[in-house]
Amino acid sequence: MEFGIVETSSTLMTDFLQKCGGYAVVDGGFATELERHGAELNDPLWSAKCLFSSPHLVRKVHLDYLHAGASIIITASYQATIQGFVAKGLSEEEAELLLRRSVEVACEAREIYFDKCTKGSFDDSGNISRRPVLVAASIGSYGAYLADGSDGKYGDAVTLKTLKDFHRRRLQILAKSGANLIAFETIPNKLEAKAYAELLEEEEINIPAWFSFNSKDGINVVSGDSILECVSIADSCKRVVAVGINCTPPRFIHGLVLSIKKATSKPIVIYPNSGETYNAGLKQWTKSSGVVVDEDFVSYIGKWREAGASLFGGCCRTTPNTIRAISRAELGYRAKLLRLINTMPHEPNEATRLSELDP
């Protein structure tokens, strides 16, 4: 039975990418959109606060990204922890219900979107086909719960056992909540990656997962640990079906994808932030060099695809407009690829396709 579960998990992402034409679009920044719709997120729970204060806004943001072209929507559970909810005065039972609710709201949004497609409502690309959509249950790092800007440098007091004990119950709940996969996001160090990998095995989690790390220098993860060592941990776990980078400036992505390719053959997921800098003390984003507007994201996509990535989206400070631009770029790429294949007398290899398609 165990072998069967792992084998089924390993095919989900490859089958999904095949249905999407080889490349898929992930959604974008969540808190950014919640704030734009009026949510006040200056709170230790951050976007998870809206799970009980304004779930209709959570649903609205999911729908906005689906209409923008996303095929993977990530739940508002990044900052949702049992410990964090209890600290706000909720019971453990209420905390667990809110974790499940994060997935329920995303699934509700997907059904609303599918219903509109069935009724013939057109999206921005004039497409009424019912593309596959996955719901990914987000799990943020221990550092996200601390909200102290530690960047994964937890110190000797935080051990592998500490991290596993912290994440275990949340993982158990989200894995049985109806999500299609678990998204371990913004992983800051190899210790936390190891904790996740061991938990997936120990708990015999029967849905697949992806690991996405973040970097501030384009070489290592934010704690200073080697990206190669971190990716190797993910690669060795059979339940991990994709590996990548999130919440990292776009200018670092290309080199990081090339590094990831050295340590794994699994699909690579990338969803960078806008390039702005987060000030943990002020709890706000500030302008900095390297900020990327929506049009620039599109110009990067071809390079990231050529380097080896196959899932593209956005993180903090990106919007549905960003995802719409990425979606249109991917639709255009697939259309060109089909035309190229149809006009060639023989099956082209991937190198030929890329040289023909990308500037």
Automatic annotation (TrEMBL):
Any one GO BP annotation for this protein: methionine biosynthetic process
Cofactor: Zn(2+)
Any one GO molecular-function label of the UniProt entry: S-adenosylmethionine-homocysteine S-methyltransferase activity
Matching Pfam families: S-methyl_trans
Binding-site list for Zn(2+): C247, C315, C316
Signal peptide feature range: none
Name of this protein: Hcy-binding domain-containing protein
Lineage, opening ranks: Eukaryota, Viridiplantae, Streptophyta, Embryophyta, Tracheophyta
